[in-house]
What does this fold into?
Amino acid sequence: MSGPREIHALRVLPRGRYAAPRAVVVESQRERLLVAMADAIAAKGYANVAVADVIERAGVSRRSFYEHFANKEECFLAAYDAGVEALLGAIAEAEAGAGGLLEGARAGTEVYLQLLSDNPAFARTFLIEVLGAGPAALARRDAVHERFAARLAEAHAAFAAAVGPPAGVPAPAPYIFRAAVGAIHELVIDRLLKEGAEALPDLLDPILEVELRLLGAPASTTRRETA
It folds into this structure.
């Protein structure tokens, strides 16, 4: 698997005679504002962040901010959406490049944890601070959890089709997959709060155990089979 990549890489545009076209400048400003929003919220908390904090970190004018976003909430939601899409895209890419279902589960989970570890501001902003960012943010979070639950359901169905369902064990109801997402989310938040984002990759085996139990892998073999 290829090495971890940043969810957002801040580009520095040349000035003067080598200045980039206006469209590139505008796109860079938006990207910098999204990164700055995550950084500011991780440092101060959503309720304490003002537009002034964001534009100072992004190095853009207030006018430029309002050319992109109507207010702080809109900027936050855009940053949340961009971070989630990048995260899901990286997970899908890792799973597709793996050699099988169990290998794909491991690869996708490893990328998920590594990207959060490499982007601590995004990890704190989108896992913790989102809870205090208002109804629209909570709706976004709920939709994301549904997407992760759907991914687990698809993986379970593929595994059952490949090897057959466990004898005497009924297929999990949809709420089981949603509960698994909640359990994984709780493990990640707990580790993030207690030990910091750099410790998140250490959760690989515990999270795989939660995931693979749904796929019918016995607890005694979960870690060995994914090593």
